[in-house]
Design a protein that fits this description.
The structure holds two protein chains of two kinds. Chain A is of the alpha+beta class. Chain A is built from six helices and twelve strands. In chain A, helix 2 runs antiparallel to helix 3. The longest helix of chain A is centred in the N-terminal third of the chain and has 34 residues. The termini of chain A are far apart. Chain B is mainly beta. In chain B, a hairpin with a 5-residue loop joins strand 3 and strand 4. Chain B has two domains: 30 residues; 189 residues, Sandwich (Immunoglobulin-like). A seven-stranded mixed β-sheet of chain B has the order 4-3-2-6-11-7-8, with no helix packed on it. A four-stranded mixed β-sheet of chain B has the order 1-5-13-12, with no helix packed on it. Chain B has one helix and 13 strands, in the order H-E-E-E-E-E-E-E-E-E-E-E-E-E. Classes of the chains: A alpha+beta, B mainly beta. The interface between A and B is large, with 33 and 39 residues.
């Protein structure tokens, strides 16, 4: 930025004079008005519709974070646009007019440069601090924390759901309901969920979009991610790690339902799949596939749960 | 280097690059097979009979040792196509001739019959809804259309049999299992189907080769109006 654009008195002989308007004050005023109008408009009108919505605590927090980022970024964007627009209109070259200001007249302005660096540094440092706080406050903000999560929720009852990636589908096991496995992902509302994400073959990534959960599915790794459901609805699950030929088709849909509906679904499915469940390997946090091509099933390993504080319920199979 | 030498080098390198590009496009981007069309084989609305076979090794083409599906076209000819065009909202009677041996499933979840009429398939005349892949001959392959919720385990043949088919298309002289089931097509769209058994022998975890290339153990159900 040059003081030719910001300091009327230093704009050069061709621009100096008593009648020269206070350009900097004008630009600040325009910027301030636009920011004061557009920021609340975005926050109140667009913010509630920013993805991923409010289906879970993590989604709600992430929606707020995205909105906050835009509210902070918008004045910066407006500042650049106002400066650019004002400069084009005010100091544009005209036929027969003076030459544009340049050369030694377009020198640096210490105040403007210092202010720019200071303001942007404060913004970046604030965002770094706020981002770190958000990770802790929302128990990982929906991301996988590995087998030993640092930030765990304090809910008295946590429903564990195991997510198993394989080429090319996700399946789900419910250890508190006899360890049955399903292609459907159904979870109850107003409940804290611990997703235990693993894989039977290559690296996948479990991305439940509207739940704002995204955790890599690595073979022989129990990657844990938490969330608490806020309201009922359907959500999309996609693999977000390029995992082979049918990666693009590796998606399905899940549902957040009432607690009663979940209980009914889970017990019904447990009963309906009992014949197959007894053929599955005992529930485990990770499984070890046989490396010899098609031969062999998968086997539970000896990994213990990440924390004894997690409440699994009476029917949890021994791991 | 002389001008002629540089020109020759440039032309040789250019030819190599063009050849590589053509090979890559042909191998990775162009369809490797045609489409088997079942839409005009019977009157509108009438059920479609879809007959396929799974073979341990295809026996021809670029990868003769790879495992593969084949489909019988309406004219009775076996084709190495994995895109099958069928009409929408129509009953599909599927017959699978399973010529490959089996093993325990990596995930027994695929031992359940799901998404087809009654969640039941028929194995050599006997209905089944779950197959224990740790017993008998295990499961050779599965036929699954994940977006339609369809999954059927295809029980393997005895690996010690003396008449295991060694090259497609296989016929009744080889040991086989016949699996039948029925489902109804949804509205128009392309629905990927695949095998959930990592059956590419010789590749790490069985996931390479025929499992990672189109036109062997996966394809599309092309449902049209």
């Amino acid at each position: 930025m040059t003081d030719a654009a910001t300091q009327p008195d230093a704009a050069g002989p061709a621009h100096a004079g008593k009648g020269e308007p206070r350009h900097f004050a004008r630009m600040v005023t325009i910027w301030l008005v636009l920011s004061l109008v557009l920021d609340p408009l975005f926050y109140f009108l667009v913010g509630p519709h920013v993805p991923p919505g409010t289906m879970t605590s993590t989604a709600e927090e992430n929606q707020f974070d995205f909105t906050l980022l835009v509210v902070i970024a918008l004045p910066v964007l407006l500042g650049v646009w106002v400066y650019l627009g004002y400069s084009i209109i005010t100091w544009r070259a005209s036929k027969g007019g003076d030459d544009p200001v340049g050369g030694e007249q377009a020198r640096a302005h210490l105040g403007v440069q210092t202010g720019w660096i200071a303001i942007t540094s404060v913004i970046v440092l604030f965002l770094a601090g706020y981002g770190t706080y958000s990770l802790i406050d929302t128990h990982g903000a929906g991301g996988g924390q590995g087998p030993n999560p640092v930030w765990t929720p304090t809910a008295a009852h946590i429903l564990p759901v195991q997510v198993i990636g394989q080429q090319w589908a996700f399946t789900y096991r419910y250890p508190t309901f006899g360890g049955f496995e399903s292609k459907q992902l159904v979870v109850p509302v107003d409940t804290t969920i611990a997703f235990h994400v693993t894989s039977l073959d290559v690296i996948h990534s479990f991305w439940a979009y509207q739940l704002s959960i995204k955790a890599d599915a690595n073979p022989q790794i129990d990657n844990v991610a938490f969330t608490t459901t806020n309201h009922t609805g359907s959500f999309t699950v996609r693999c977000s790690e390029l995992c082979g030929l049918w990666h693009g088709a590796m998606y399905n849909y899940g549902q957040v339902v009432s607690k009663q509906a979940f209980q009914t679904w889970a017990t019904t499915t447990e009963k309906a799949t009992a014949a197959n469940t007894k053929l599955l390997p005992p529930f485990a946090w990770t499984y070890v596939p046989d490396a010899n091509g098609a031969d062999g099933g998968y086997y539970n390993d000896t990994v213990v749960p990440y924390s004894p504080s997690e409440v699994y319920g009476a029917k949890q199979p021994a791991s | 280097m002389s001008y002629r030498g540089r020109l020759t080098t440039f032309l040789v390198m250019l030819a190599a690059v063009i050849a590589l590009a053509v090979y890559s496009v042909n191998t990775f981007f162009l369809p490797q097979s045609g489409v088997t069309d079942f839409t005009s084989a019977q009157p509108a609305g009438a059920p479609v009979n879809l007959t396929v076979q799974t073979v341990g090794q295809i026996g021809f083409g670029a990868h003769p040792t790879w495992v593969s599906y084949m489909v019988r076209a309406p004219d009775g000819q076996w084709q190495h196509n994995t895109t099958w065009k069928v009409p929408a909202h129509t009953t599909i009677h599927v017959t699978v001739h399973q010529y490959d041996s089996g093993s325990p499933l990596r995930n027994q979840q695929w031992g359940r019959i799901q998404g087809v009429d009654g969640n039941v398939a028929v194995l050599n005349g006997k209905p089944y809804s779950v197959y224990d892949s740790n017993s008998g001959n295990g499961v050779g392959h599965t036929f699954a259309i994940p977006t339609l919720g369809i999954s059927v385990p295809l029980v393997g043949v005895d690996s010690n049999a003396t008449n295991i088919c060694s090259a497609a298309p296989c016929d009744s002289s080889s040991v086989s299992n016949t699996i039948t089931f029925t489902f109804t097509t949804p509205g128009p769209g392309e629905y990927p189907w695949q095998c959930f058994v990592p059956c590419a022998l010789g590749y790490l975890f069985g996931n390479g080769g025929a499992m990672s290339n189109a036109n062997y153990m996966g394809g599309f159900l092309d449902v049209v109006q």
